[in-house]
């Protein structure tokens, strides 16, 4: 990708956009950073850049004349790819790529890319730790927090880049080709962005689109979409399963994780893991399969997975106050992920849910309440929609709140010794918080102040 002297528009001034703009300017491009949010102040955006940056900043309504002076566009993951201005760019023949594609073109080393509706962050974090135990130059990037563009120029030929990839990021790849990829599962999510389940599935499948015969793709055998997808792929396919033995791949058998490729190897007992729940055993299996197929020694893998304690905001124990256990599962941003949070509870639970509407159905989530959830405390844009679905499903112990703090404090007041209070919203945080991390941190702050 030739960059020096090119006129490049970076669309979006979030963490990915700032990272892309910086690397482009450093390579000699003439960069314009654009954000449609007219409430942003130029100074606030410029403060995120290097002091000597000469990047032009444009905010608010898109100036059409810009279309006449662009060589290509780098679009941030949060910007929908089908909005009118992006469509006009394509109509004019202006290449539109994502921040991940830019970083891949400029970076070095082998890339491990992990996607799926749920489990991405845990699997990415674990695989990153496995690689750090075995390799000298490892970078963990993507949807997990650090933009790929922030580290691309630090990578070497012997580097390993472990990337958590969202469907938004995978929409805009062109040549991006991981050495090892994984799709953990696919369930309905982000339909407000992708509009159809078919489009969402295709975005996820893009992670393996450019892989060759000597590359590796790890897939969940128990996901019918992925089992069928694996039969169509060019790269070597390894499946993982929590439900059955596999002739090749990695599976759970009587409490042991077994890796077979082609020889059978006992990785560990799940009792040796600090992670709890079948969904987490699946995450471990995916990470182990990716590392082992790449050639990381099993002893190194074992050492890491036994020590790994999980990630923040995912069924995270916060504190026990007055005999009530508090759990932060703010990363449960869709119904399927939030079901895992409920299934992990072994106490009667006061559940805090609701948030931004991603056009999800909450029926299966509500059905998972049986025998576990004492009361549902709802917040955010979706509270009335969820309350309606809950009543239709026969669950009626519901309360609606205008503020997050009011919901948490009410749960704390109602819960008795031996109960649990779980934040597992089944919705995104937008509208009330910047992201799920901020929501989880606020929950912990309130709990710790009790």
Description:
The protein starts with 6 loop residues before the first strand and ends with a helix. The radius of gyration is 23 Å and the shape is globular. The model has no long low-confidence stretch (mean pLDDT 93). α5 (120-134) packs parallel to α11 (278-294) and α5 (120-134) packs across α12. Strands 7-8-6-9-10-11-12-13-14 form a nine-stranded mixed beta sheet, with helices on both faces. The chain has a six-stranded mixed beta sheet with strand order 15-16-20-17-18-19, with helices on both faces. It has a five-stranded parallel beta sheet with strand order 3-2-1-4-5. The chain has helices at 15-26, 42-46, 84-91, 99-106, 120-134, 148-151, 167-170, 191-194, 197-205, 224-230, 278-294, 298-307, 335-343, 363-367, 383-392, 404-414, 436-448, and strands at residues 7-11, 30-35, 56-59, 72-75, 96-98, 110-115, 138-142, 160-164, 180-183, 216-220, 236-241, 249-253, 256-260, 264-269, 316-321, 324-328, 349-353, 373-378, 398-400, 420-423. It has 450 residues and is an alpha/beta fold. The chain folds into three domains: 7-94, 3-Layer(aba) Sandwich (Rossmann fold); 101-307, Mur-like, catalytic domain (UDP-N-acetylmuramoyl-L-alanine:D-glutamate ligase, 3-Layer(aba) Sandwich), CATH 3.40.1190.10; 316-448, Protein-Tyrosine Phosphatase, Chain A, CATH 3.90.190. The chain is built from 17 helices and 20 strands.
Short description:
With 450 residues, the chain is α/β, with parallel strands linked by helices.
Keywords:
Rossmann fold; 3 domains; nine-stranded mixed β-sheet; 450 residues; alpha/beta; 20 strands; Protein-Tyrosine Phosphatase, Chain A; single chain
């Amino acid at each position: 990708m030739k960059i020096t002297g090119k006129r490049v528009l970076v669309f979006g001034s979030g963490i990915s956009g700032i990272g892309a703009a910086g690397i482009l300017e450093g390579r000699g491009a003439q960069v314009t950073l654009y954000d449609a949010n007219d409430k942003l102040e130029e100074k606030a955006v410029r403060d995120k850049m290097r002091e000597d940056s000469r990047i032009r900043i444009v905010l608010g309504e898109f100036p059409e004349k810009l279309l006449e002076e662009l060589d290509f566009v780098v679009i941030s993951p949060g910007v929908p790819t089908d909005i009118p201005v992006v469509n006009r760019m394509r109509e004019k023949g202006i290449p539109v790529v994502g921040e991940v594609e830019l970083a891949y073109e400029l970076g070095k080393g082998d890339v491990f890319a992990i996607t799926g509706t749920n489990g991405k962050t845990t699997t990415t974090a674990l695989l990153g730790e496995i690689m750090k135990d075995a390799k000298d130059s490892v970078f963990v990037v993507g949807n997990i927090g650090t933009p790929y563009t922030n580290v691309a120029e630090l990578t070497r030929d012997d580097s390993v880049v472990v990337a958590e990839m969202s469907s938004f990021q995978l929409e805009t790849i062109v040549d991006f080709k991981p050495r090892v990829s994984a799709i953990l599962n696919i369930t309905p999510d982000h339909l407000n962005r992708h509009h159809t389940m078919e489009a969402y599935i295709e975005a996820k499948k893009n992670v393996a689109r450019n892989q060759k015969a000597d590359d590796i793709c790890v897939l969940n055998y128990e996901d019918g979409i992925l089992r069928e997808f694996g039969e169509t792929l060019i790269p070597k396919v390894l499946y993982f399963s929590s439900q059955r033995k596999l002739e090749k791949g990695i599976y759970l058998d009587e409490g042991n994780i077994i890796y077979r490729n082609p020889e059978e190897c006992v990785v560990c007992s799940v009792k040796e893991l600090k992670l709890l729940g079948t969904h987490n055993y699946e995450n471990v299996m995916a990470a182990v399969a990716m590392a082992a197929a790449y050639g990381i020694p099993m002893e190194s893998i074992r050492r890491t997975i036994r020590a790994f304690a999980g990630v923040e905001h995912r069924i995270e124990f916060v504190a026990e106050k007055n005999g009530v256990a508090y759990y932060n599962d703010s990363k449960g941003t869709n119904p399927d992920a939030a079901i895992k949070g409920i299934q992990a509870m072994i106490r009667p639970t006061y559940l805090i849910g609701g948030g931004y509407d991603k056009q999800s159905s909450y029926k299966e989530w509500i059905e998972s309440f049986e025998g576990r959830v004492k009361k549902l405390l709802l917040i955010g844009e979706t509270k009335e929609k969820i309350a309606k679905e809950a009543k239709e499903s026969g669950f009626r112990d519901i309360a609606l709140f205008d503020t997050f703090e009011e919901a948490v404090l009410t749960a704390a007041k109602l819960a008795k010794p031996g109960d649990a209070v779980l934040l597992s919203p089944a919705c995104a945080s937008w509208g009330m918080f910047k992201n799920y991390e901020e929501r989880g941190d606020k929950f912990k702050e309130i709990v710790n102040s009790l």
